[in-house]
Write the C-alpha cells for this entry.
Amino acid sequence: MSLCRLIRNSARYCLAFVFLNTLILQASISFGDENRPLSNETLDLSALFPGGTTSVSVKRNNNAFSHPSAALTFEDKLDFKVGKAVFEKLWVSSPSSTTASDGLGPLYNARSCARCHVNNGRGHAPGNKLEPSIIRPISLFVRLSIPPNLQQIESIDDGAIPFVPEPTYGAQLQGFANPGGHAEGRLKVRYETTMLSLNGGQVVTLYAPSYEVVALGYGPMHPKTMISPRVAPPMIGLGLLDNISSQDLEALADPEDVDNNGISGRTRRVLNRKTGKIEVGRFGWKGGAPNLEQQNAAALFHDIGIGSALFPEPWGDCTTAQQDCRAAPHGNTARHEGLEASKKLTQLLLDYTQHLSVPARLERNESNNLDVRAGQKIFHEIGCADCHRPSFITRNNADHPTLSEQTIWPYTDLLLHDMGPGLADNRPEGNATGREWRTAPLWGLGFAPEQTLDKQTAQNKSYLHDGRANNLIEAILWHGGEALASAESVKQLLPLQRQHLLDFLESL
Amino acid sequence: MKQIYIGNASLFRLLVVPTIVATLSACNTLDAYETNDPSKANVSQHEVVQNYISLAQQKYNDALVTAEALEKTVNQFLAEPTDARLGDARSAWIQARVPYQQTEVYRFGNEAVDDWEGKVNAWPLDEGLIDYVDASYGSESDENPFFTANIIANPMIKLGGDTIDVRIIDTNLLANTLHELDEVESNVATGYHAVEFLLWGQDLNGTAPGAGARPASDYSVTACTGGNCERRRAYLSAATNLIVKDLKDMTESWQVGGEAYQQLIAKGDAGGLSTMLTGMGSLAYGELAGERIKLGLMLNDPEEEHDCFSDNTHWSHYYDAKGISNIYRGEYLSTQGTLTKGASLSQLIAQSNPALDAKMLAALATTERAMQAMVDEAAKGNTFDVLIGENNLEGHQIIQTIVDSLVAQTRVTEELIVALGLENLELEGSDSLDAPDSIQK
C-alpha cells in the first residue's frame, strides 16, 4: 500500500495496484462503466476509497474522522484549520470582548459544535441503559412540535414551515441558559429490554427507549407536544453528499413502489432559505435541510443560539412566550454584519464541514477480505443495498473541483423510508411522517466505534437516530417497515453469514 | 550570573541527558544561535527525545516560577491596592506569559498536556460570567450600563439553568463547581486570561490603540469602585492560586514517572520524535497561523485571539513561535537566564541532511523576523488588534507575512517528518499534522 499512497493522486492506478497485490477479486474489473448512479460495488474496487480522491488513509483512532480531504492543497488546508477553529470555538455569552465569539444562547444545548460532534463522530445516548437516567439534552437532544391546525397544515404542505413548534419551548429543548437565565428542562430516559433469538441460538437484547421531559423551566408544555430525540450525526463526507445531484435522488425515489419491491423511498421537500425554493432535503435525520450551509446555520441557531444570515434572530430558539430570553443581551455586532456569526465565519464553517475526509477503508488480511466480500454479497442479497445505496458520482461543480464528479460510496439514498413502529418518533416533519427516517450513510462505520471512546462515553456506542443501539447487530434488528424483510433475513442467516455481514459493515 | 542546575543528580544519570552546561549573563534574548554544536557531532534519536523532556522540565518550571512571582505581586497588590502595585501585578503577568507561551509547543501530541491546557489557557473567556462588562461593547442594544449576572456581583447565580451557590469564591468553586457544571473541557472562567481580565478589565478601544484600564480601586476595601470589591479580590486571588497549582501539576507531570513523561516514553524514540514534530507543525500551522492569526485577520476582530485585555497578543504569538524554534534547536533560555541545551533535532537532521537542516533553520529565522516586525510595530503603539483593524492594509501585510512564514515553516517541518521516516506514525488523540503522503501537490 505504500506505493499506493505515493501515487494517491491517481486513484485508478492505486486501485489497480491493490488488485494486483492482494488478488481479492478473481473477476475482471470494469472501471469504465460509469452509469450513474452506480448500482453495485461488488466489482468496483474504488469502493476502497469511499470519498474518491478526498479519502485519506488513516489509522483507526479518535482522530479518524478529523482529517482534511486528501484533495485539498496545502494552502486550502489552512482554511480548513481555521474552519476547524470555528467548529471547536467555545461561544461565550454577550456582551464580551470577543465579538466574533459571543452571542451564545440565551438558550443552548452546547457551547460549541465539537461538544456534540465529539471527534466529528456521532453523539451518544446514556451509557447505562439499565437504569433510568435524567440527562441534559446535549449530543442527544430533543425536537419539539405540536399538531398543526388546518391553516398550518397548508403551510406545511407548501413547504413554508416544517412543523409547528411547541408554543412556549420552541422547536427544540435547550438544557442550558446563559447566566441569569432559565434552562428549559432535562430529558428522562428509560429503556425497556426485549430479547430476540437469532438463528443459531444467539440472543440479542434490544433497548427500547421512552422519553419524558422533566424539570421544565417555563411551565407545562402543550398537552399534545410531540418529541423527537436525536443524536448528533458524524461529520465525514458531508460536502460530497451535498454534491449528489437532486435529479439522481429524484430518480431513485419510488413513492408508489411501482417496482413492487416493498421499498418506497421518497424525497424530503424542504425550503431553501437562500433561494426561497422548495428543494430535495438531504441533511438531518429526516432530511430537514436541503444543503450543508443551511444545515450548519440551523444547528448554530437551534443548538448554540447563534444567529447568522440564514437564521438571523440572535435569540435562537427563544419563543415569544420566553420574553426574558428574547430581551437578553445578544451578540449582533456591526463589525460582523449585524449578526452573531458573520458570513465570513459561516463560510469558514462550511469549508470545514465540506472537507472532512471519509477514511479509506482499512485493508486487513486476505481471509478477512474474503469474509468482507461474502458479507458484501449478503448485504446485496437481502436487500440492504436497496436503501443503503452504495455509490453515486457527484455532480459537476466548477466552484468546488475537489467535490466535483467524485465516485463516492456513502451507502445511502438520502431518501425517506418508513422504518416501522419500533423506530417511529411519531412526530411528522414537513412531508416526512412520524415513521419515516432518511437513510443514514454507512461510510466510516468501521471507524465509528472509536469515535465515542472519549472520556464521557467510554461505555457505549450509539447507533440509530437516538443512539439506542449499542452495536451494529442491534441497529440492524431495529429496522422495521420497509426494511422489515431485510431485518428478518438477518435473523435467519447462519451465524457465520451474519458475522460476514458485520465484517463487511465494519470494513466500511 | 546564574548557577545552572538541571534536574537532580540521579535523574541526570538515569536519563543520560547530554546537556551542555553553560553560563551566561541573565538576559532575555539570545541573539546569536550557533546552528550546531560541533562537539556533539552525532546524536541519537533517544538523546534528542530525552533532551525534549529536559526542555519540558525547564520550561514548565520557568512557567511555574514566574506564576509564583505573579501570585506574590497579586498578594502585594491586594494588600495595598494602589496603581503602582497594580502595575507590578500586570508586569508580572506579562512576564509569566513569556515561558508559558514557549511551553505551548508541548500541547500538541502530548495528551496529558492537551487535556490539562484548557484549565490554564482557555480562550475565549466568558468575562461577563466573572465580572461587570460594558454592555455597549459587545452588544449594541442593551440599555444597562453593566451586565449584572456575574459571579462577583452575586452570591447565588443561575448558570446553565441551575442555581449555584457562589457565596464563597475560592479555588474549589472555580476549579470544580463551575467546571463540572458546564461539562466542557475548557473552563471559560479560569486561567491566565481570567487573571488578565481581572487585572486589566475590558479593552474598550476596539482596533484603536490602548489596552484595558481597570482602576486599582476595583480592589479597594475602603473606596471600592465597580462594586463587590471583596468578592473581586477573592476571585483574583483564587484564579491566581489556581494557575500556580495547575503549573505545579504539569511540572510534576514531566518528572520521571509523571503522566506526561510516561506517555512520551511509552511511544518509543521514533514516537517521541513524531510527537516533537507534531507539536511544532500543529502549533505553527493550524493553531498559530490558522486559528490565532488568520482567523483574527479575516474577521478583523480585535479580540479574536489571546491576551486581548492586556494587548500583549504580539508577545504571545512571538513566544509561541520561539517555543517551536527552541524545540528544533534543543535549547531553552529561561527567564531566569538559565540555558538548557542538548541533543537537538537540528543536529539529528544535519547528520544525514545538512541542507534540510539549513533550510529549517532559515525558515525559523524568517518566522522570527516576521514576528519581530509585529513586535516592533507594537512597541510603536500598533498592537495586534490595531494591525488587524479593518482598513489597516499595512498592518494586514505584517500579519499576513507571519502567516505565510509559518506556513512555509510547516512545509519544511513535513520534510523533516519524511526525512526521519516518521510519515506513517500517527499519534493517538492528537491533532497531528496530516500525513505528508496524503497531500496532493
Remarks:
- Chain B touches chain A through 69 residues (CB under 8 Å).
- Residues 1-36, 137-146, 435-441 of chain B have pLDDT under 50 and may be disordered.
